[in-house]
């Protein structure tokens, strides 16, 4: 008689994670669709280009790039680890390009630079972003460089820098939702919704990255 394989029971924690993961995707989509709608509504300008590029770069592409590697992520669940890593790279690279171009066009358009908290956080994120991209490339050759530096150090540093980049970029968006351009297309209630949804995205897009970082740190500290 053929033995029936027993299915592993799903824990309450996994159910909650899946619910929040799905909700996170919905909120990311809402914010990006709303900002894109506002961009088409107001028409082309450098400020519009800056807003839409940075929003899509951080809140859509980078967030989804991080989630691509997360266990149980709804759209990458059945992909192999190699495919997830490739998708992570593609989404992060395009997101980084969007964010950097968005920052550059706004910098060239303004006479006064980095006077607001929104701008300072954006600048900090841009610096971290460049470092993260360079480190991401070296991380691809972690095995070849293992005679000089342990791969776990490479992965931990990349994870830490990428997380800092994302959080700083999302924090910049948070304060960006207080700017005149956003208030011209949204009510006070919608502005607060965008900010709250952004906080939610920071938290639930970072859970897996924080967990991986913790495991990497344990491997570093408890090395035999």
TrEMBL record:
<keyword id="KW-0349">Heme</keyword>
<keyword id="KW-0249">Electron transport</keyword>
<dbReference type="GO" id="GO:0140571">
    <property type="term" value="F:transmembrane ascorbate ferrireductase activity"/>
</dbReference>
<keyword id="KW-0472">Membrane</keyword>
<dbReference type="GO" id="GO:0016020">
    <property type="term" value="C:membrane"/>
</dbReference>
<keyword id="KW-0813">Transport</keyword>
<keyword id="KW-0479">Metal-binding</keyword>
<keyword id="KW-0812">Transmembrane</keyword>
<dbReference type="GO" id="GO:0140575">
    <property type="term" value="F:transmembrane monodehydroascorbate reductase activity"/>
</dbReference>
<feature type="transmembrane region" description="Helical">
    <location>
        <begin position="86"/>
        <end position="105"/>
    </location>
</feature>
<feature type="transmembrane region" description="Helical">
    <location>
        <begin position="117"/>
        <end position="137"/>
    </location>
</feature>
<dbReference type="GO" id="GO:0046872">
    <property type="term" value="F:metal ion binding"/>
</dbReference>
<dbReference type="InterPro" id="IPR006593">
    <property type="entry name" value="Cyt_b561/ferric_Rdtase_TM"/>
</dbReference>
<feature type="transmembrane region" description="Helical">
    <location>
        <begin position="189"/>
        <end position="210"/>
    </location>
</feature>
<feature type="transmembrane region" description="Helical">
    <location>
        <begin position="23"/>
        <end position="40"/>
    </location>
</feature>
<dbReference type="Pfam" id="PF03188">
    <property type="entry name" value="Cytochrom_B561"/>
</dbReference>
<feature type="domain" description="Cytochrome b561">
    <location>
        <begin position="19"/>
        <end position="213"/>
    </location>
</feature>
<protein>
    <recommendedName>
        <fullName>ascorbate ferrireductase (transmembrane)</fullName>
        <ecNumber>7.2.1.3</ecNumber>
    </recommendedName>
</protein>
<keyword id="KW-1133">Transmembrane helix</keyword>
<dbReference type="InterPro" id="IPR045150">
    <property type="entry name" value="CYB561D1/2"/>
</dbReference>
<keyword id="KW-0408">Iron</keyword>
<feature type="transmembrane region" description="Helical">
    <location>
        <begin position="52"/>
        <end position="74"/>
    </location>
</feature>
<feature type="transmembrane region" description="Helical">
    <location>
        <begin position="157"/>
        <end position="177"/>
    </location>
</feature>
């Amino acid at each position: 008689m053929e033995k029936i394989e027993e299915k592993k029971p799903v824990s309450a924690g996994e159910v909650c994670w899946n619910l929040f993961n799905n909700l996170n995707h919905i909120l990311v989509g809402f914010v990006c669709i709303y900002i894109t709608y506002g961009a088409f509504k107001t028409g082309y300008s450098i400020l519009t280009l800056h807003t839409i590029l940075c929003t899509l770069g951080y809140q859509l592409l980078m967030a989804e790039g991080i989630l691509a590697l997360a266990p149980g992520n709804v759209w990458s669940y059945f992909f192999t680890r190699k495919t997830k890593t490739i998708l992570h790279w593609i989404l992060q690279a395009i997101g980084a390009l969007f964010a950097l171009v968005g920052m550059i066009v706004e910098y060239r358009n303004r006479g006064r630079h980095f006077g607001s908290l929104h701008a300072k956080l954006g600048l900090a994120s841009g610096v971290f972003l460049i470092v993260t991209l360079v480190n991401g490339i070296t991380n691809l050759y972690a095995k070849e460089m293992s005679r000089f530096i342990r791969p776990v150090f490479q992965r931990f540093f990349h994870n830490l820098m990428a997380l800092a980049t994302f959080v700083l970029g999302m924090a910049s968006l948070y304060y960006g939702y207080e700017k005149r351009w956003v208030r011209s297309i949204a009510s006070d209630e919608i502005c607060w919704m965008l900010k709250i949804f952004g906080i939610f995205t920071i938290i639930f897009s970072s859970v897996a990255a924080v967990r991986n970082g913790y495991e990497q740190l344990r491997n570093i500290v408890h090395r035999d």
